Fold:
Amino acid sequence: MMTTTANIAKTVPLMVPDVGEEELGLIRQVMSTGFLTEGSFTKDFENLVAEYVGAKHAIAMTSCTTALHTVLECMGIKGQEVIVPDYTYPATAEAVILAGGKPVLVDVDLENMNMTAELLEQAHKDSMSVFIPVSWAGVPLDPKIYSKAKELGLTCLEDAACSLGAKIGSDFVGKLADHSCFSFHPRKVITTGEGGMITTDDDEMAEKFHSFKHFGMKGTAFEMIGTNYKLSNILSAMGIVQMKKIEKIVNDRIEKANIYRELLSKVANIRPAYVGKGTRQTFQSYTCYVEKEGLRDKLRVKLGENNIQSQIGTYALHLEPAYRNIRRVGSLQNSELLYKNALTLPLHKDLTIEDQERVCHIIDETLNA
Ligand SMILES: Cc1ncc(COP(=O)(O)O)c(C=O)c1O
Structure:
């Protein structure tokens, strides 16, 4: 039987990293030096990120998870409770547990999907010293959360895994919290394959973070117990090139998010991704909300049948087996609704307007037939 590709729908991936010849060129340069581990390329990558967000220090790490772990370990949170949003990737809570702390799960806002200042205040106890809000999907936090943290005497450690390039007014995420941690996983705004970064203005803590990722070494002595979370020159070379592209990447994502918004606003039973006022979002994930209960998964199947990749939003940690016995505050109702109904659509450099129209047409057909 003759086969034809004419009727096979084009595959639309969820994400396509913007990497190519330029990254390869700089990686080749690293190879030619023979110095592959952390080195001058890492330093250059750190400087580029620090300058970009306007922070005094940037410390490269192997991932956002290890970046969060480093901050918490250096703060010495053993035995302490640490507030984290329930609606997040497990890494946020895992970092707390790795550092010997106890996560406390709080709910998020149903629209912007982030923890709020009110939720922080409700869950706060005087025995706490740090909390970890997540600027999820690249939506900056409500600025009230930073002032509330100061009022409560809490260090704000922002899980900004999705938010490199996000801004509140003219201030970049990465200079707003006491310490911020970014991810360079391939689904993030820029990528080094795997990688992470801490940004901070705190000189003393920056020195500790640096020492922790170098096995606890300070000068020539091992003054604390550390580990090896160094980012290699090879991956840092990728990061250097990616930093040259970041503004283009973010602006392209915003443009395509605007197109989705326009198309989806004409479709009943789905709420386009949140757009805040006075902020710039990265749209690391274009996550909308299916308003007809129980249809999100059916929609994902339909999209899949048409070769369109999709994802859920993220996880409601209290529903995952490993987190069932973790303390929680309140009903976590919004987190649960988001876990069941949020839907992430493809968004990347190769996505065409025709792809976006096709995606939205299938959504309309499935939800409103
Ligand atoms: C909110 C959040 N925090 C942390 C992480 C973990 O980042 P990494 O893979 O760089 O450890 C992720 C990854 O998806 C995330 O979404």
